């Protein structure tokens, strides 16, 4: 397999880097200043050559795929699009390929093609693990949206297949490529500015509830049975919201708020902020896995034995607070009741980082004590950095495909932190605390809870490895 060279910016100008490293960047305003702005035009110009584009097949052409491909389109040739909604695949093909891409209802047609080496998966969460595993087995490299799994067992399967196939997989946790915010926060941690970490907090926001969402006719353009795929066969539901573009439904976008298709906020935003917490602990050498989880959550419906009693409305958590204990008196708090972001507290200092700001005394201290020149690069595993932060995560993936390297959002660390999100979900559903054996990847002494480590797949949608 050959991959066309993409001209990535290998290293950054030293003066620009120094300016960035010295800046306090304590406010959202500073964040909007691209710290390597002078290199962007040449990167964009070099990449305009059609020859430098890589052919990609897109599976799931909804909101996020539109955003992602729009971001990276200058490097990509969209040659195939699969979606179970004809309107979505047709609109996507027209927008990103001028109608040239082949359109499919069944994504397996893309995996069968020898002329496509890279795949983007942006289906709903219940449709990530199966096509990702099949894509790897078909010899494709994949940029797959978060969260990669619905269960801890699915994570084991993905790790196994990735090890066996050696395919390159980037998880769509793009916060790992925001140099001015999350990567810089990690550089502070890795440089010891916070000391030993005592607590990390992921504030992931509250989740919505809904009234009854009535059964509705299936839109003629939608193959509802394949949209459901591995999950139980249930009716399509839809409730228009006058004055709002977004209806209440158990389908497009709103699947996030139903446990059949998602883990709710715990995996939707947990996949981003718990990931940063986990990254910080690991960079600080605090690598041991979790021991236990305690806390509580509110659901918008009644639960019995871990399952919602009412089937006709949103059922994932609305409010939550969990404490995950790690060896050495370290804890991770996942909460919904405060400003979205990550608070990292060490015995020498504390920082808060979100999508809009990076603040705290260790950040202010950068004026007098800048980080070493290679601090950001080290955290970014020495990989080239594309300094348009909107595009950086895709640039990282494409570079790693070309060079056969592990991307910045790797499968292994994603699974470590997603296990924690899934455990919190099990604890929320059962309404009790859990002890965890991280080596065996089992809940200790709780058979009922252990049954939530996997889910049955609907007949015809099993995962074959
Ligand atoms: N990284 C981020 O910040 C971020 C932001 C938003 C969404 N996401 C993730 O992206 C994924 C998609 O979310 P979205 O908001 O775009 O949802 P969406 O409902 O808008 O899009 C999903 C698309 O997948 C299609 N689909 C469903 N089953 C399919 C199948 N078997 N084969 C092909 N297509 C299928 C649907 O018809 C729909 O067009 C989710 O996993 C979500 O967590 C990530």
TrEMBL record:
The organism of origin for this protein: Novipirellula artificiosorum
Know the name of this protein?
Inositol 2-dehydrogenase
Query: Gene3D superfamilies, per this entry?
Result: Dihydrodipicolinate Reductase, domain 2, NAD(P)-binding Rossmann-like Domain
Domain Gfo/Idh/MocA-like oxidoreductase bacterial type C-terminal: start-end pairs: 213-462
UniProt keyword annotations, A-Z: Oxidoreductase
Q: Enumerate the spans annotated as Gfo/Idh/MocA-like oxidoreductase N-terminal domain.
A: 55-172
Check the record and name the InterPro entries matching this protein: Gfo/Idh/MocA-like_OxRdtase_N, Gfo/Idh/MocA_oxidrdct_glycsds, Gfo/Idh/MocA_OxRdtase_bact_C, NAD(P)-bd_dom_sf, TAT_signal
User: GO MF annotations for this entry?
Assistant: inositol 2-dehydrogenase (NAD+) activity; nucleotide binding
């Amino acid at each position: 397999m050959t991959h066309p060279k993409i001209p990535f910016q290998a290293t950054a100008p030293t003066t620009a880097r120094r300016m960035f490293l010295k800046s306090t960047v304590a406010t959202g305003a500073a964040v909007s200043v691209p710290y390597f702005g002078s290199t962007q035009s040449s990167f964009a110009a070099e990449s305009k050559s059609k020859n430098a584009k890589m052919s990609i097949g897109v599976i799931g052409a909804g909101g996020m795929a539109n955003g992602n491909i729009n971001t990276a389109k200058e490097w990509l040739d969209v040659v195939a699009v699969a979606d179970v909604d004809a309107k979505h695949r047709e609109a996507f093909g027209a927008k990103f390929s001028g109608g040239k891409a082949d359109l499919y209802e069944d994504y397996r047609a893309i995996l069968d093609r020898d002329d496509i080496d890279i795949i983007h998966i942006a289906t709903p969460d219940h449709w990530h693990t199966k096509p990702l595993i099949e894509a790897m087995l078909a010899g494709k490299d994949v940029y797959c949206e978060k969260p990669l799994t619905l269960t801890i067992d699915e994570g084991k399967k993905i790790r196994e297949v990735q090890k066996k196939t050696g395919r390159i997989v980037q998880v769509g946790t793009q916060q790992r490529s925001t140099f001015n915010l999350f990567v810089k926060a990690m550089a502070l941690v890795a440089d010891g500015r916070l000391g030993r970490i005592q607590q990390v907090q992921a504030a992931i926001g509250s989740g919505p509830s809904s009234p009854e969402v009535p059964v509705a006719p299936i839109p003629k353009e939608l193959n509802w049975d394949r949209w459901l795929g591995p999950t139980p066969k249930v009716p399509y539901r839809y409730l228009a919201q006058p004055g709002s573009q977004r209806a209440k439904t158990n389908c497009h976008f709103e699947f996030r708020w139903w446990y059949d298709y998602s883990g709710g906020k715990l995996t939707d935003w947990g996949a981003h902020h718990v990931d940063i917490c986990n990254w910080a602990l690991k960079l600080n050498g605090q690598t041991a896995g979790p021991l236990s989880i305690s806390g509580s959550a509110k659901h918008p419906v009644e639960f019995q034995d871990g399952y919602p009693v009412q089937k006709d409305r949103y059922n994932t958590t609305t409010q939550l607070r969990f404490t995950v204990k790690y060896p050495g008196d370290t804890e991770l708090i996942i909460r919904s009741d405060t400003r979205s972001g990550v608070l990292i507290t060490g015995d020498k200092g504390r920082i808060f980082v979100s999508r809009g700001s990076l603040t705290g005394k260790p950040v202010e201290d950068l004026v007098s004590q800048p980080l070493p020149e290679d601090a950001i690069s080290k955290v970014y595993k020495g990989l080239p950095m594309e300094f348009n932060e909107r595009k950086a995560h895709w640039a990282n993936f494409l570079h790693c495909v070309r060079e056969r390297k592990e991307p910045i959002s790797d499968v292994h660390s994603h699974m470590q932190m997603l296990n924690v999100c899934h455990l919190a979900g099990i604890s929320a559903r059962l309404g009790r605390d859990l002890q965890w054996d991280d080596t065996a990847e089992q809940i200790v002494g709780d058979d009922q809870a252990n049954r939530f480590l996997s889910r049955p797949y609907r007949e015809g949608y099993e995962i074959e490895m």
